[in-house]
Design brief:
Elements lengths: L5 E5 L4 H10 L4 E5 L10 H11 L4 E4 L8 H12 L7 E5 L9 H15 L6 E7 L17 H14 L7 E4 L3
Parallel strand pairs: 1-2, 1-3, 3-4, 4-5, 5-6
Helix pairs in contact: 1-5, 2-3, 3-4
Length: about 180
């Protein structure tokens, strides 16, 4: 596990975000932003407050997803712009393996992927995390094998630990 980093996580009170928050809180300074503490990424003024409160962070995990809009994409673009050109900052974007559908979820995740591809060789570095089904309330109704949220945590932690020796830009994984 990495230590002594300042990490910002959106959507930190449920699912993947909650597991990330609890994991990194053990040995890092972690800032959590979610609707439960009045930080709704779908509201532009709230995103601006998130940026203001995370400008000094080392890592930003763009996790919060809103079913009704592309606010996660806006959060990604805004944190990228805030840290533009900085090589000591790192953004993780929680996307999805499921980007080929004709629904709003797939379409917004695909837009995030396209933004990341466009900025692949720019700073700050963005690492795109693309899990298959993860056992969260969002996919509770789907009767298929799902990964535990801790699987996503372990992959992000691995990337952080090996960042100086392995250049991962995107990782797609699914449960067996």
């Amino acid at each position: 596990m990495i230590n002594n980093k300042k990490i910002a996580i959106t959507g930190h009170t449920n699912g993947i975000g909650k597991s990330l928050y609890e994991h990194f809180l053990l040995s890092n300074i972690v800032y959590g932003f979610s609707k439960s503490n009045a930080f709704d990424v779908s509201i532009k003024d709230h995103r601006q407050l998130i940026l203001k409160n995370s400008v000094e962070c080392d890592v930003f995990i763009n996790n919060a997803y809103n079913n009704f809009d592309d606010s996660q994409l806006h959060m990604l673009m805004e944190v990228f712009d805030m840290w533009k050109g900085l090589d000591n900052k790192l953004i993780f974007n929680i996307s999805s393996k499921w980007t080929n559908g004709d629904n709003s979820y797939s379409k917004t995740k695909k837009l995030q992927d396209e933004f990341i591809e466009k900025h692949l060789f720019n700073l700050p570095k963005i690492i795109n995390i693309k899990p298959g089904l993860v056992d969260t309330r969002r996919v509770k109704h789907i009767d298929r094998t799902k990964m535990k949220t801790e699987t996503v945590v372990n992959i992000i932690d691995f990337i952080l630990q090996t960042r100086s020796t392995i250049g991962i830009t995107s990782i797609t994984f699914e449960p067996f």
